[in-house]
Write a structure and sequence with these properties.
Blueprint: E1 12-17, E2 20-25, E3 32-41, E4 48-49, H1 58-70, E5 79-80, E6 89-91, E7 113-116, E8 123-127, E9 131-137, E10 142-148, H2 150-155, H3 157-169, E11 177-180, E12 190-191, H4 193-196, E13 205-208, E14 211-214, H5 216-226, E15 234-236, H6 251-254, E16 261-267
Parallel strand pairs: 5-8, 6-7, 11-15
Antiparallel strand pairs: 1-2, 2-3, 3-4, 3-16, 7-10, 8-16, 9-10, 9-11, 12-14, 13-14
This protein binds zinc ion (ZN).
Zinc ion is lined by residues 185, 187-188, 240, 242-243.
């Protein structure tokens, strides 16, 4: 059995805040907190699917505002990158905190990972199959949020984000905790030979006829391990976004109507 399959699943609890059905850690977190959204919002008139979208639609921005209020986070501090499948990381400082959170025009450009040590500044990753990876270093009180699809992972986004944590905040990889949120599972992620050749961990690939099935979570786990993050500190969810469209937006499974899940991490004090 390959390594990542023996990783413990994260203990998450489904909880509602402002009607939003969220996955929150069900274990103590020291100095930081995080949340993965589902697409479900419960309302008195009945549940509905809720988009936190990337394209600036007014409804998606309203949904973000209501989510941030429910988490007691300041909406003007919610920070989002433009997410272009790059390997670039931005350090969020007081000048850039709040960029892109409620205004897509101000998203941090040409960037796929954010890190900060500023308290109460929520870093967000928008996904609909890609892996949202949240990093936290309780020792130096630094956090990061990574958008990891195959392109960004192949380009080095995971190592770059860990290095940003070490270079800017003095974090040590062995102290870093990594949380892999809901993403497309190997059950549903068929890729061609062209993409398979870009995957650095053969253990993350399974042959399926003339195609391959890619375990993006397992591959990113290998990439985290290569940076020195400890296996015991890497936790993942068992949800596949494409299997569980009752709970998550999925780029592959939803086809026409595309929305985004959001993953957030912040320093609490
Ligand atoms: Zn699946």
């Amino acid at each position: 059995m390959k390594g990542p399959q023996t990783l413990p699943h994260m203990n998450l609890r489904l909880t509602t805040a402002g009607g939003h059905l969220l996955l929150r850690p069900d274990f103590p977190t020291q100095g930081f907190s995080f949340a993965f959204t589902t697409r479900v919002q419960l309302r008195p008139q009945g549940p509905r699917f809720c988009d936190f979208g990337t394209n600036g639609k007014a409804a998606a921005m309203r949904n973000r505002k209501s989510l941030l209020a429910a988490l007691s986070l300041a909406p003007d501090q919610f920070t989002v990158a433009n997410q272009e499948h790059t390997a670039a990381v931005a350090v969020v400082d007081p000048l850039t905190a709040g960029s892109g959170g409620l205004n897509p025009d101000t998203r941090i450009a040409r960037t796929d990972a954010l890190c900060t040590s500023l308290p109460q500044v929520a870093l967000g990753v928008m996904t609909a199959d890609c892996v949202p990876i949240l990093l936290a270093d309780p020792r130096t009180r630094a956090v990061a949020a990574i958008h990891a699809g195959w392109r960004g992972s192949a380009a080095g986004i995971v190592a770059n984000a860990v290095h940003a944590m070490t270079n800017h905040f003095g974090a040590r990889p062995r102290d870093i905790l990594a949380f892999l949120g809901p993403h497309i599972g190997p059950c549903c992620y068929e890729i061609g030979n062209d993409v398979a050749q870009k995957i650095s961990d053969p253990g993350a690939l399974t042959v399926s006829g003339k195609k391959f099935l890619l375990d993006l979570g397992a591959w990113n786990t290998s990439l985290l391990r290569e940076t020195g993050v400890l296996k015991k500190n890497i936790l993942k969810t068992h949800y596949c976004t494409a299997c569980r469209t009752d709970l998550f937006h999925s780029y592959r499974a939803d086809k026409k109507v595309r929305g985004s899940n959001v993953s957030l991490i912040w320093i609490t004090d």
